[in-house]
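Q: Sequence in, structure out?
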Amino acid sequence: MSEARPSGTTRYVLFDVDGTLIDALDNQRRVWRTWARRHGLDPVEVHRVALRTRPVETFAQVAPDRDPLECLAALHALEDEDVRTGVYGAFDGGSELLAALRPGTWALVTSNYEHRVRGRFARTGLPVPEVVVDAAAVEEGKPSPVPYLRAASLLGARPQDCLVVEDAPSGVRAGLRAGMTVWGVNTVTAVDGVHRHYGTLREAVADILAFASGSLPAHPA
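A: Exactly. Output:
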């Protein structure tokens, strides 16, 4: 049974970006495979590693003899070009959902960089919130709880009053370790640990808004 919520307590929603609000899987695959080919590496293996690690960790694993700063600069150039020319869109329901949330009660928590998020959001018509915690804002990335705890702190929120919306195992673990409610979206099967699972973001919209309003318990009964 869910714990009663103190009267007047504000609820907050913290969103992952890529794979949760923005459909960028093909873009990420293309960028990493282009980077791999330019470095004479197996594109499939590099992308497999990149899906579960931060870029610097990917470089250490797939190209330990290369200068990580040069690797990162090359990757950033490809990603920035993709923001300008790539084809991608917002997941169904995303625009409606973000527009309905009260300002100051939601944030973006991403392993990408804020300027790319803003570029993609501008092209897809999604609003950008006051708080964006990106890769440059924290020293520890997901699955560390630090990014989500940082977002909660900037919003003035308690972890127990926050809902994390994620699609990736590392992000789910980060939210759980932060002591937050975690819902998974856009996956065929539930990621281990999520409190609720939705096959698509669209299916989750009504419940996310209900959580934010306080009319839906944090966890299923």
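Residues 68-85 form the longest helix (18 residues).
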